[in-house]
Write a structure and sequence with these properties.
388 residues; mainly alpha; Growth Hormone, Chain: A; 16 helices
């Protein structure tokens, strides 16, 4: 136990930093969507597809990455993801056509798989009573989307698109080296367990895997959808400039980042189910408010921030629930499946929003669909987990 405690803080901090860097890379396209749309003459639906495309690999790739993490350890897997992500980051910056942007944006999703590495890596360093806190702190690394929203447009203005992407590639290389040299896998962790396919087969038979996957698709999926598409939405509806829209999208992400560890810590104290009740109920209310298309800043800005806060609480609550329901040796594989569901949950809303805006000139229908989905998740949580 003393050896565990000795490495907890440093390895949690390094994992969170690696998560933030890779999530910054994952969200490189969203903050620049306005300039891509203008330069390439894209329709709202084409822009939505471009923004959403990295989410596909970032979602589905979490399944094999979670399995590999159970077998190879988080230290090596974090480094591999950092190094491999360098290639699509560079080519996204160098691409000059819509087709190539879609192709390299698809591969950019590799950087989004880091979530399935960090959860089992961090879980293994902490005792069960503190895993909600630990995974919540690690989850704050999703603030990489806020860093991207705020800094990427400004770096492009300063160094050009290619130069900004070269800088991001250098940061990824440095982070990979730091993870190899500075982090270590928990002595309590297990690797080289059951064969990958067997582990996957066992994970899909666990009822909690599918329950948590659904809840995470709503909470984390909602966060991903807003954090990647919000710059586009703000430019379309409120006519903000690209940098101003990026600043406000960064504020959205920061609110979710701050509330995620709070959701994990509260889950340790009052239970993850109660946290999910608050999260999903708040999401329903905020979606209905935003459907009314309130004026900018107040109340629209406040509503977006509160939406982010409630979604962040829920993401912390879901993985506290995973830690309670799933044995430690299977957390990586289950995390991969649940994380994939969360990523896929973030893939479809931007596409829906793009189609809705093209058809109606507003996002009202999209917000109403979010409210209905969150209400369904709230009802399911009550029926499935009210005794926990």
């Amino acid at each position: 136990m003393s050896e565990l405690r000795k490495g907890q803080v440093s390895n949690l901090a390094l994992a969170t930093a690696a998560f933030a860097v890779t999530f910054w890379a994952w969200n490189l396209i969203g903050p620049l969507s306005g300039s891509y749309s203008r330069q390439l003459g894209l329709s709202p639906t084409q822009t939505s597809l471009l923004v959403a495309i990295p989410v596909v690999v970032g979602a589905l790739g979490r399944i094999p990455v979670g399995v590999l993490t159970d077998r190879l350890g988080g230290r090596r897997m974090f480094a591999v993801i950092c190094f491999v992500s360098i290639v699509p980051v560079l080519f996204v910056g160098w691409s000059g056509s819509y087709a190539w942007l879609l192709f390299w944006g698809f591969l950019l999703g590799i950087s989004g798989t880091s979530f399935a590495v960090g959860i089992p890596f961090v879980n293994a360093w902490y005792e069960p009573a503190r895993r909600g806190f630990a995974t919540g702190v690690f989850g704050a690394g999703m603030g990489g989307t806020a860093l991207s929203s705020f800094f990427t447009p400004r770096l492009v203005e300063e160094f050009g698109r290619a130069g900004a992407h070269v800088l991001m590639a250098a940061v990824l290389a440095l982070m990979g080296v730091i993870m190899l040299g500075g982090s270590r896998d928990s002595p309590a962790g297990s690797s080289a367990g059951a064969p990958a396919l067997l582990g996957m087969r066992e994970a899909v038979r666990i009822k909690a895997t599918w329950q948590c996957a659904f809840l995470y698709a709503v909470t984390f999926g909602g966060f991903v959808a807003f954090s990647t598409y919000l710059p586009t939405l703000l430019q379309n509806v409120y006519r903000f400039a690209q940098t101003d829209a990026g600043l406000r999208a960064a504020g959205f992400s920061i609110a979710a980042v701050l509330s995620r560890p709070l959701g994990g810590a509260l889950s340790d104290r009052i239970g993850p189910v109660r946290v999910l009740f608050v999260s999903l109920g708040g999401t329903v209310v905020m979606a209905l408010v935003l459907a009314l298309r309130p004026p900018p800043e107040v109340p629209a800005g406040v509503s977006f921030v509160l939406m982010a806060f409630f979604l962040g609480l829920g993401t912390g609550g879901v993985f506290a629930l995973v830690a309670r329901l799933v044995e430690a040796s299977r957390v990586g594989t289950v995390t991969g499946l649940v994380g994939a569901a969360g990523g896929l949950g973030g893939y479809f809303p931007p596409l829906v929003m793009g189609v809705v805006f093209t058809a109606t000139g507003a996002y009202t229908v999209g917000y109403l669909l979010l409210a209905v989905t969150a209400l369904a998740a709230l009802t399911y949580t009550y029926r499935a987990f009210r005794t926990l």
